[in-house]
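Let us begin with a simple case.
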Amino acid sequence: MKWIIEKQHEGMLLRDYIRQVQGVSRRILKAIKFEGGLILVNDVEQSVRYVLKEGDEVEIKLPIEKKGNFMVPGEVPLSIIYEDKDIIVLDKQAGVAVLPSYHYPKGTIANGLLAHYEQQNSASTVHIVTRLDKDTSGLMLVAKHRYSHSVLSTSQQAGELKRKYQAIVDGALSKTSGTIDAPIGRKEDSIIEREIRENGKRAVTHYRVERNLTGCSFVTVQLETGRTHQIRVHFSSIGHPLYGDSLYGGDVSVIQRQALHCYALTFPHPITKQTLRFSVNLPLDMVNALRKLQTSL
């Protein structure tokens, strides 16, 4: 990353400019210092106590990041919506895990991204900003290095990163729009399932009914928070589980995965600060599920 120092920042310590103006975390600065990165001013390495002058060119070179044992390139189909040197936006297919694990050691989105980077001769790594469940489809944001990930995480915490979903839920919702505000925590004796718990983390889900059919509702959802399984748990808790969501009591007769799709994503670019907006269509399996539900009435 490179920045030209403006008049208003003249006289600042390099450390303060990097931390306060550009939002580089203390953790990243530590990695630059001890893991092989560089901080340059006008192409000369400088300490963080350098006093900046108007017109100085500041450049940060991040160290190469170590990858976990499962983080190896693998051929996985990727639908790339947008890509530059800092971020990548994908339209994720259902049925594919995002990160490798003991249960899914290969064939994940991360493995596919590493293969994609390898083909580009790029040293980029995989930092998931907006993670989706294995069987949830739609838009997903990935940072290509730790700095963009740090900035996007800050944007997410500030509510500047917005995601909208489409879902098919069981039953007709009594209100055309509403908010579910109920804390979510891990269910006892389960490493996967979540539930509404008084001691859980605050979780807020806003929804609007787009189509109310007999026996089901097609809704759009916007998250205010981003808890694991939030949409699935919230709708199940009010008696309207997502179709296909067997974990939380959903009907699996017309679709065999949770009928949930992230169709819209808006966020400020971590470097340029330009607001980016993306949207994708409803996937075929959810379109077919709606058709089946409509014709079965």
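The second case is a distinct protein. As before, the sequence precedes its structure tokens.
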Amino acid sequence: MQHFKTLSSFLEYLELPRPEHPMFSVFNSKEEGFLPCPRESSPPITNDCYSISFKKFVKGDLNYGRTKYDFTNGVLIFIAPRQVLQWDSSFVFEQKGFSINFHEDFLKGTELAHQIKKYGFFSYTVNEALHLSPKEEKQIESIVENIEIEYQNNQDEFSKEIIISQLNTLLKYANRFYERQFLNRKEISNNLLDQFNQYLTQYFESGQLQEKGIPSIEQIATRMQVSQRYLSDTLKKETGKTTTEHLQLHLIDEAKNILLQPNKSISEIAYELGFEYPPYFSRLFKKKEGISPTEYREKYKLN
């Protein structure tokens, strides 16, 4: 897999103009046909850069998990360093919008270098992009215009600080707009929760728990055709619990049923539930239920 260590080499691969700054670039246009268009397709690649792109989606179906988007205004996409990128020519976008690309070292020594890692949307896939309303588009475009002005000006000691400040503002707005998208897509959020629960139920009932062990969150997300981070954020917004907590609740619920079978030891039950180490099962059970598996069995055992 090809990896690009510098911003210049990455942009050259995308067939975009060379950057004015060795670690930062911005292309911005409100006029159709002006914004440079990356190559139509690419095999899997990685790079050391962050990318924030805004495009108008005009042709083809862009899916949200298994559900097609119904909000086809501006699409804002975030990509973090070392994420695997791959695309083909099936999607068509208008050539107006903006593209901001910057090397991760551009943020070194700044507060944003730490803050940017907390934004979950950099781990989302294109299927989980942020769709903006016309009002939100104008707010984002205003910030990008400020960034572009500073980018095109002669660089001085204040340029980087000003650009990073504007980037910070852009990301805060994006975080707010994602919150809105989660709320507006309540039905889809519920559907994800249903899919999550159905997958675990089928996994448990099919005997895969004993055969393959406890499924990873990444495995579950892949099966549901969403990113791991997006699944976790969606369930957290919808239920207040993360994917890990939901998985643990399923395990504990299953454990309660098996514990009422007196012919099985605690260790046997732990192994049956996919735990490699029985003490970990006992600690998790007590953490969630307030009593140990043995105490639970004694309390609820059938007479």
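The beta strands are 2-4, 24-29, 42-47, 49-59, 63-64, 67-68, 74-79, 85-87, 92-103, 130-132. The two ends are 62 Å apart (CA to CA).
Keep these points in mind for the review questions at the end of the chapter.
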